[in-house]
Amino acid sequence: MFVDQVQVFVKAGDGGNGIVAFRREKYEPMGGPAGGDGGRGGDVIFEVDEGLNTLMDFRYQKHFKATRGENGMNKSMHGKNAAPLVVPVPPGTTVKNADTGKVIADLIEHKQRAVIAKAGRGGRGNIHFSNARNRAPEIAENGEPGEELYVQLELKVLADVGLVGFPSVGKSTLLSVVSAAKPKIADYHFTTLNPNLGMVRTEDDRSFVIADLPGLIEGAHEGVGLGHQFLRHIERTRLIVHVVDMSATEGRDPYEDYQTINQELEQYDERLMERTQLIVANKMDMPGAEEQLEQFKEHFDGSQKIFPISALTKSGLSNLLYSIADTLEKIPKNAFETQEEDLQDERVIYRHEKDDESFRITRDPDGAYVLTGPQIERLFKMTDFNRDESVRRFARQMRHLGIDEALRKRGAEDGDIVRLLDFEFEFVE
């Protein structure tokens, strides 16, 4: 089964907790704090594996969670950092944030990597909180939580040439005779259910990859037929080869077919019309094809070259393949690999979006005030509420963020309930 779109959940490892510890050695009665820091958690990294050509594996495993860092130890020993979780993906995979639709990474080359979910740092041990006023602090941080998010994976096949056209115009037959690919061929529409790739080598030893894409019909860009599922694969091809059935045995006009398919491509993505396109007049072995070809050519001014072929009898193929190879030599290999509007970095790896708001205050139906926001939630999770000093430090952090004043402005009074994640506090003046 060919799978080219799937949604998965990724969770980077949390940092290990820092600890509270003190030196207690024979000749060091006032040894001071010695609690070590926690180790960093493991990142979730996607890495391109050229041996893969489908997202099938993600149909059966949809949760990827990296391990957390080790907790700190006494004698100021640092906890061990966790190893990253490396997930192999096929070349041509685009990773998007499922909630926002923003592109996180566009993975194309073998062994290319992108950090999809960033791990949390380890919490600091009490050696970091010692100062002149408090030489024996009983305070340490919990590890920072790792990022977690749902991501949408889209596979866009990496081919030099994309074959487009109505169903049953001979695209699969053409691919089968010019390459070693063995696509399914039959006398009915939508025989091709998945993109097929074939390596073509010309007689002068030039090579390129052709993708046979499922047939398009009118309305494909809106979800009609099967072609709409695979229009995304055309985006990465450098050259479009438009195959037209010149025999008109199905009662359709070849030029109307040509216009219909181009309209579908344009309505899916206007930039596809900037792509170089070669027209292939197939089934020239059929009766009436020559007359249809002459009528077809009348719609062009002569600048558009049309290649009459018969994939069945293999006539005209050499001229077509040479022309494809010549055209590809004029188009840079990475000309259309990164056309996403969201791409911002030359390395094609992108940073996660940052939420500018440190906190937000809302009200529940029962009147309780609800605190949300990435920064306050992160501080809360890194606080060890089993130690009074840690609780007092968290209260100072909330005041520093302006949460106390913001609650007063919202009307909070002494004794009101404040919720943060799954916990409740009393607002105290």
UniProtKB/TrEMBL annotation:
Mg(2+) binds at S172, T192. It is found in: Cytoplasm. This is GTPase Obg. It is an enzyme of class 3 (hydrolase). The lineage of its organism: Bacteria, Bacillati, Bacillota, Bacilli, Bacillales. Residues 159-329 form the OBG-type G domain. Its main location: cytoplasm. Pfam families: DUF1967, GTP1_OBG, MMR_HSR1. NCBIfam families: Obg_CgtA, Obg_CgtA_exten, PRK12296.1, PRK12297.1, PRK12299.1. Belongs to the TRAFAC class OBG-HflX-like GTPase superfamily. OBG GTPase family.
